[in-house]
Amino acid sequence: MDISNSKSLFANAQNFIPGGVNSPVRAFKAVGGDPLFIKKADGAYLYDEDDNRYIELINSWGPMILGHNHPVIKEAVIKAMESGTSFGAPTAKEIEIAALITKMVPSVEKVRMVNSGTEATMSAVRLARGFTGRDKFIKFEGNYHGHGDSFLIAAGSGAITMGAPNSPGVTIGTAKDTLLALYNDLESVEQLIEANKAEVAAIILEPVPGNMGLVLPEEGFLQGLRKLCDEEGIVLIFDEVMTGFRLAKGGAQEVFGVTPDLTTMGKIIGGGMPVGAYGGKKEIMDFVSPVGPVYQAGTLSGNPIAMAAGLAMLQYLDQEPGVYNQLESIGNKLVGGVKQSLSKLGLNYSMNHLGSMYSLFFSEEKIIDFETAKTSDTALFGKYFQAMLKRGVYLPPSQFESLFLSTSLKEEHIEYIIQANEESLKEIL
Ligand code: PMP
């Protein structure tokens, strides 16, 4: 496969951009080789600067749930562009998207739009602190909530693959208010609450973590957190930046029937434009400025182009019958095929799967948390990644990420991926 244009672009990019990329995991450090520079994307495919074509299993890290360049989103963006790119003033579309979000995610009674998942989680924790008058919060090892200072402590995603979960530049003063619990371990949460009685403002978690590879909550874990929060006056925040509008209309909270106080959202709600949001109970959200004392603002927040893309996406997901069944069926077929190949090859690698998200771990352990995720053979994953790429399948370039499927995957794509997976495993083992 010729990737000479990507190679020379990457060499040049490094002169002007740190590491040649605007987000670390894109540099392929965890899997070796040069990153591909992408020229365009359409449906289930990405095209690089050397005109190689790849089947997409990242989908912009989640947002492109309908595949790339979907006509509904494209038309909404083009139409919005005709009326200007930013006003810095309220628009009717903002009410429409906020109302739709509250309908699709019933725990969200009011919502504030921001520009990224990072902004959403930073703002949600500030709000929980302002609301409760407490300083500390609990997060879980291997969960990623963006790059806000107080979250860069045992964080997942690129923060694991870059080998720097505790980033320089995060002060001890900041870090001391972030309490670390173990995912799927209620006792670790109880101990922290006990040791910091009446000081914990919030518990924030990915209800279904995708940033240490995909991990599922064990029976009773989310319910247990809800109960603890109720007993202790702690704000429960579900970070549904990945899972929101993907696992179901109402996200992981709908799938598991557990209602958080606040929810953070991103990715899909922007239809591929830079958008995040946080929302939840009215009484908490009304603590946000200008109605309440907790300050949070944004020059480009509620941007008209981003709102048009996001609204078109959410309307489609809300109204198109069978879209979640379709995602489910694509996930089941693909994961079923990969599992069949594993057993045919006599491999006991662990797989976690829910709907249109899954991870194949190069480990034989059941992956339930950060500790078990770290038992994966990341060097072998790197070889697997390259073997798949050579066959035209674009996977997340790290063991510690989930795959994201889109409705644009048809039968022929699924069959091709299953076959490529089997050949790749044979090649690397
Ligand atoms: N929360 C979760 C669960 C995420 O997966 C991410 C990004 N992958 C973020 C927050 C941060 O979002 P962003 O990259 O848009 O800042």
From TrEMBL:
Localization per Swiss-Prot or TrEMBL: Cytoplasm
Keyword Electron transport: no
Species annotation: Echinicola arenosa
Keyword Signal: no
Annotated protein name in UniProt: Glutamate-1-semialdehyde 2,1-aminomutase
Pfam families in the cross-refs: Aminotran_3
Family to which the UniProt record says this protein belongs: Belongs to the class-III pyridoxal-phosphate-dependent aminotransferase family. HemL subfamily.
CDD domains assigned to the protein according to its UniProt record, in alphabetical order: OAT_like (cd00610)
Keywords, sorted A to Z: Cytoplasm, Isomerase, Porphyrin biosynthesis, Pyridoxal phosphate
EC number of the protein: 5.4.3.8
Subunit structure: Homodimer.
Modified residues (N6-(pyridoxal phosphate)lysine): 267
